[in-house]
User: What shape does this take?
Amino acid sequence: MNVRRLIPTAATAGAVTLGLLALSACSTSDAASVDGDGRLKVSASFYPMQYLAEQIGGANVTVTPLTKPGVEPHDLELKPRQTAELNDSGLIVYLKGVQPAVDKAIEQSDVKYKVDAATLTQLEHFDTAGGHDHGHEEGHEGESEAEHEEHAAEGEAGHEEHQDEAGADPHIWLDPVKYAEVAKGVGAQMEKADPDHAADYRKNTDALVAKLTALHTDFEQGLRNSSTKTFITTHSAFGYLAERYGLEQEGIAGVDPESEPSPARIKELQGIAKKDKVTTVFFETLASDKTAKTLASDTGLRTDVLDPLEGITDRSKGDDYIEVMRANLAALQKALGAK
Assistant: This one.
């Protein structure tokens, strides 16, 4: 609507000015929040979301990560200042299910543009010891039909409760194909939040997807021929990566990288290592390597880093997502005896 054409005479210039001011105020309240240089203010929950925002946003955005380098993202508690920054954002990029405190703050926020990476690709449930978790349907030997139905109902309720607590595996960024799907969704939302720079966001998204596609090709070719397909890790974060490239992840003690494995699990892993010719126990950069070294010592295996890329620190084998993922690929190739 052209306000000037509705006001034909100079005598009403004051009214025009007031009307334009009102229109401007309305537009400002509806538009995404920008910084002093006119750049879209983006809050990113943790490093994988930060990387997407920076790569796609480029010079048109200023990105504030809620999780600082070296902080374990799952344990993050937001400070009041961080909550205020979050609420002042023009766009929030996050992954629901990773950081409960962040999820709660975002749910309570009035920010118009929010994008949950978990909605942009298909999430799955994996058994933390490797493979998919489809639940258990076995009956109880010797029980009556009524007792069986009662146990089944209890088991189903318990399984639902477990899924509600744990949720689907959130580590989608460790699969370059899924990460590329997420990148496209983030780019589309960035275009909505800041339509004036939509062409830039589309160009940057295409460039990032091309890099992720090349990374996927390198993983696919680099892991195709190997002596074994099984790897052992302290942090069961690599279910999507394993599924994508035909590997088998064996977690030492589930999703907590620092929890102690049971003697039974140690014995089981010793058998797996021998049977599948496993050479290496992997640990991560943001957690202690104690568990990995204990198992490696008990089984005569090496240790190495397989980085779940939840944050970049001075200990990371690279300065960004692509570099660290290539370091992960090299570590896997060495451990699996890739040819």
